[in-house]
Design brief:
CATH architecture: 2-Layer Sandwich
Number of helices: 11
Helix content: 40-55%
CATH topology: Nucleotidyltransferase, domain 5
Strand content: 15-25%
Order of helices and strands: EEEHHEHHHEEHEHHHHEEEH
Strand order of the largest sheet: 3-2-1-4-7
Mean pLDDT: 76
Low-confidence stretches: 98-110, 123-143, 255-285
Number of domains: 1
CATH class: Alpha Beta
Radius of gyration: 20 Å
Distance between the termini: 28 Å
Shape: globular
CATH superfamily: Ribonuclease H-like superfamily/Ribonuclease H
Length: 285
């Protein structure tokens, strides 16, 4: 199973008004413990100093990565990362994977990018659903268009929390709940500043940090599943244990199944809670 793990940096939070500055990627094969390819695409640098041909070559490389992978792993990628990527790709996104013609498109570039972004978000919101047993599945895909193929590949650990617990979770808290070390050298505002000041190595390094964290979460998900809290972080009860098969299809773990090694998340809770309730241990589902 070939995973493409993706995270982006932007000039702001609005897909309509802001732009991508960097796209961090890792290509990982679940059958091998080694990373096959790791790269950060510095879109801001290419936009400022590269030619139109340089940008087009970069777009085609990103499209190739998305086309060739089996799963696209992201955190809040559905609501944030992917709409930005689709807008940036423009006409490259609209062509079917097998389409190699150079058909001319009507309308301005900005209009075309915004239409692609809107279509992608609408598809994302309708293509996935939970069946009666709580298993996350994908509706039937009968089209080779990227509008359907790419959304069918996504695994979004943030959106998964909303599906199973009816609330969002931060990447930091999800890592804490699952014994994954999340390392950050700054904030999103720092990343914006790196791009504005043309500190390209710092921008790329910051972008790749979350990608490496997502890789660890992916490996954790495949080997142990992931824990999601239902009622905040002051109680060890009511955890949802989401498990994954080799294709990264998720479902809720049965209560009578063995939790497996290294699944205790007691150490992830604040010391104040541990000291206040030293006799209370987490109840695993």
């Amino acid at each position: 199973m070939r995973f493409l793990i993706v995270d982006i940096e932007t000039t702001g939070l609005s897909c309509s008004n802001d732009r991508i500055t960097a796209i961090g990627t890792i290509v990982y094969n679940s059958e091998s413990p080694q990373i096959h390819e790791e790269r950060c695409f510095n879109v801001a640098k290419t936009r400022k100093y590269g030619s139109a041909q340089d940008m087009e070559a970069m777009q085609k490389e990103v499209v190739h990565l998305f086309d060739q992978c089996d799963r696209i792993v992201a955190f809040n990628g559905i609501n944030f990362d992917f709409p930005f990527i689709v807008k940036w790709l423009g006409a490259h996104y609209d062509h079917a994977p097998a389409d190699t013609n150079t058909e001319e498109h009507t309308g301005t570039t900005e209009e075309h990018e915004n239409e692609s972004c809107t279509d992608f978000v609408n598809t994302m919101q309708t293509i996935h659903e939970l069946d009666s047993s709580g298993t996350r599945r994908v509706a039937g895909i009968n089209n080779t268009s990227r509008h359907l193929v790419w959304p069918s590949k996504y695994v979004d650990f943030c959106l998964m929390s909303l599906e199973y617990t009816n609330k969002y979770i931060s990447l930091k808290n999800l890592c804490g709940m699952n014994c994954v070390k999340a390392v950050k050298s700054g904030t999103g505002l720092d990343a914006i500043g790196f791009a504005e000041r043309e500190q390209w190595p710092e921008l790329e390094h910051y972008c790749q940090q979350d990608v490496r964290v997502l890789l660890e979460l992916t490996q954790r998900a495949v080997s142990h599943g992931l824990k999601y809290p239902c009622h905040g972080y002051t109680s060890c009860e009511d955890l949802v244990h989401v498990i994954f098969d080799v294709a990264m299809t998720s479902s809720v773990k049965s209560a009578d199944m063995h939790a497996g090694p290294e699944m205790s998340i007691f150490q992830a809770f604040p010391k104040k809670f541990q000291q206040a309730c030293p006799q209370k241990r987490p109840r695993m589902p």
